[in-house]
TrEMBL record:
It comes from Coprinellus micaceus. InterPro entries: Ubiquitin-like_dom, Ubiquitin-like_domsf. This is Ubiquitin-like domain-containing protein. SUPFAM superfamilies: Ubiquitin-like (SSF54236). Residues 1-47 form the Ubiquitin-like domain. It comes from the Eukaryota.
Length: 130
């Protein structure tokens, strides 16, 4: 990730309380003094997005799965990894091409055999000046 940890992924804890982000969120407003300790960590990203494909018994199905994001979001994890491109709306887009079998096995067009398609997204908002 270029430019450091995204603002939406940061968590600051002071005296057991999570500090809230925003224009009024200053060290002075939180009564943080020189020498006080802060705990800084990366936030958990939340729900995991998974797609399973199970065609009817006795049939294999060629499938194309397309995802398009709004400009404020970006893909942070993809499995299997595929190239991303710009969508017509200005965000990121991707496309998985797989052959799905009734057992749930997916054969990605690179030859990789997987059980599911997975992605995570994160906000594009970053610290100013970075």
């Amino acid at each position: 990730m270029e430019g450091g940890l995204e603002v939406g992924c940061q968590r600051l804890i002071f005296n057991g309380e999570r500090l809230q982000a925003g224009p009024q969120a200053t060290l002075q407003a939180a009564d943080i003094q020189d020498g006080d300790g802060l705990h800084f960590f990366k936030a958990l990203t939340g729900a995991k997005h998974v797609i399973y494909l199970f065609p009817p018994a006795g049939t294999d199905v060629e499938a194309t799965v397309k995802l398009n994001l709004i400009p404020e979001w970006k893909f942070s994890v993809l499995y299997p990894v595929v190239p991303t491109s710009a969508s017509s709306a200005g965000g990121q887009a991707l496309e998985w091409n797989v052959k799905a079998s009734p057992s749930g096995t997916l054969l990605e067009n690179t030859g990789l055999e997987v059980s599911y398609l997975f992605w995570e997204v994160s906000r594009r908002q970053t610290l100013r000046g970075r």
